[in-house]
Amino acid sequence: MIAKGVNIPNEWIDEMCEKLDISIDEAVDMYLADNGVIENAEQNALNEKTKGMKIDHNTGGKPKKKVVRERKPNELKREIINMLIEALNVCEIKGIEDKQTYFETLKVVNPEKYIDFTIDGREFTINLVEHRPPKVKK
Questions:
Q1: Is residue 116 helix, strand or coil?
Q2: What is the dihedral sign for C-alpha 52, 57, 61, 62?
Q3: Is 114 within 8 Å of 123 (Cβ atoms)?
Q4: pLDDT in tens, 36-70
Q5: Across the strands, what pairs with 105?
Q6: Is-contact 98 92, C-beta < 8 A?
Q7: Residues 6+ apart with CB under 8 A from 106
Q8: pLDDT confidence tier of residue 1, bands split at 50, 70 and 90
Q9: Residues 43 and 33: beta-carbon distance below 8 Å
Q10: Are 96 and 111 a contacting pair, CB within 8 Å?
Q11: Quick check: pTM over 0.85?
């Protein structure tokens, strides 16, 4: 078939001829069919055949197993959280007269991560994060 006004990159033709071991005419036909310039009956038949198919991306159609990992308690983080609670209980904040209103609520949300508290009607959270050691470049 003749298709006028279509520019096919020479590099693409050379690459396809080399990779697929096909002739220049076959490479040109493939380019025109892929870009919808000409009809390819074989390609259209395959597209129609696969339209209703559902792709299963799992390995062999088996459902993935859910891995349940047991968390190890981080005693150092627990100790730091306890030290922070003790420090908050004995601290004095400038500008607040009544010591009873320092901490309206002080609770440990997660013993290794969060402390929530309220001071003078305003809510705060302390989030303790342990960073991984930096990777050593080889």
A1: strand
A2: negative
A3: no
A4: 777 777 878 888 888 888 776 666 666 778 899 89
A5: 118
A6: no
A7: 85, 88, 89, 115, 116, 117, 118
A8: very low
A9: yes
A10: no
A11: no
Q: Given this model, what pLDDT does residue 6 score?
A: 78
Single-letter code of the amino acid located at 36: G
Measured between alpha carbons, how far is residue 61 from residues 53, 68, 76, 112, 131 in Å? 14, 21, 44, 40, 38
Tell me the percentage of the chain whose pLDDT exceeds 90: 12
Q: Which two tokens stand for residue 13?
A: 């033709």
Q: Give the C-alpha separation, 125 to 116, whole Å.
A: 4
Give the Cα separation of 56 and 63 in Å (integer). 10
CA distance 3 to 28: 10
Strand order of the β-sheet with 114-119 is 105-110, 114-119, 122-127
Tokens matching residue 36: 């919808």
Residue 69 has phi, psi (to 5 degrees) of: -105, 135
Residue identified by tokens 């050379």 is: 14
pLDDT at 97: 61
Residue in the block written with tokens 């001071």: 119
